[in-house]
Design brief:
The chain is an alpha/beta fold and about 400 residues long. It is built from 14 helices and 15 strands. It folds into two domains: about 180 residues, Phosphoglycerate kinase, N-terminal domain (Rossmann fold, 3-Layer(aba) Sandwich); about 200 residues, Phosphoglycerate kinase, N-terminal domain (Rossmann fold), CATH 3.40.50. It is about 35% helix and about 15% strand. It binds adenosine-5'-diphosphate, 3-phosphoglyceric acid and magnesium ion.
Length: about 400
Amino acid sequence: MLEVAGIERMQQTKSVRDIDIKDKRVLIRVDFNVPMDHEFNISDDTRIREALPTINYCIDREAKSIILVSHLGRPKGKDSDFSLKHVLKRVERLLGKTVVFADDIDSAKSIQATLKSGHIILLENIRFNAGEEKNDPLLAQELAQLCDVYVNDAFGTSHRAHASTHGIAQFVSQKVAGFLLKKEIDSFAKAFTNPLKPVLLIVGGSKVSSKLALLNNILDLVDKIIIGGAMSNTFLQAQGYDMQKSLVEENLINEAHHILEKAKQKGVKVYLPVDVVSTNDLKTHQEIKITPAQDVPQDFMAVDIGPASTKLFNQVIRDSQTIVWNGPLGVYEISQFSRGTFNVAHSISDTYAFSLIGGGDTADAVERAGERDNMSFISTGGGASLELLEGKVLPAFEVLDQRE
Ligand code: ADP
Ligand code: 3PG
Ligand code: MG
């Protein structure tokens, strides 16, 4: 399934274990983009926990300074709703250490200059800087000035060529992978070099634009695809159904058509919801209706798959040997709209298939469904795991040092 040369190259990346950390200023790019409720309570801290081995390793090896860099969400400029201050306490608690918050790169610099050796800094959301997503070399250089060693442990963001995941590497002499990056790539290599067939991809969630394009290439690798969540709205609309107020990416309708057509040519079976749960108001959800996917009531939005779809998807799941799942099938954070997603989690856990779960929200949903321990492997990457399965060498790996 995976492109072997590419994955082998990624497995050859140098790790934090291959270099000397003592007395070095270490910058670790982590992915602390964790799911939170509207009061900023973290609902799943897996991504933070999974970064701990690398952070602790650098502490134990007596790094002079550790600076943690991450994004949170997709802010448009500075916006306190997206501040990493919301994760500071959890990071401190899990590490059992004081972590100093730096509002920006300049304040990180002065903290580094004033605090004694061994301190840990958490930098404010790196996406508050306009240059991050543009992979601006000026921002990359500024970040590089904060460290002697660059460690990337943000597997969930490894498919992004941004200043903190990609550009920075060209300005740092030692750049290596953290333990999470290593663990993820090794697990993918083991599971997907020769997957058992039939291979089923379940895709949902809300990041439709970034995930839809990936389906194109993945069609070569899978036997069946279940599409749910907001993703399926665009496909249902492409079939001529009026999805009313549902989240639909109008500009991707042609692309959705193209994918359905290509799937047909390749003999890949695509399963879309046949019925949906919809509401007139996502906040108050005063009115909730279950209808065929063709009949979403006027001014309602589809927010979960319906019971008939759950049954249909369950049968498809039961017939699969390898299952890759990214993206919840509904607004699982709200209990009334979580049933489809949770039932799919239960169906997967009832199979003997190898199951790979990817994505911050999908992992959270599986946890809430009480099925975490029944999955074969939970990746911290959603989009990243799909791009990996597509056969790409992920940009974040590309720029790290290779073993001789
Ligand atoms: P992941 O983090 O697992 O990669 P995404 O971030 O792409 O997944 O999507 C998760 C989000 O998708 C959740 O917040 C969920 O509420 C939302 N979602 C799922 N289905 C729908 C839908 N039908 N309408 C609106 N949002 C949806
Ligand atoms: C994720 O949650 O998939 C990663 O943190 C990457 O986020 P992004 O899709 O906003 O780049
Ligand atoms: Mg998400």
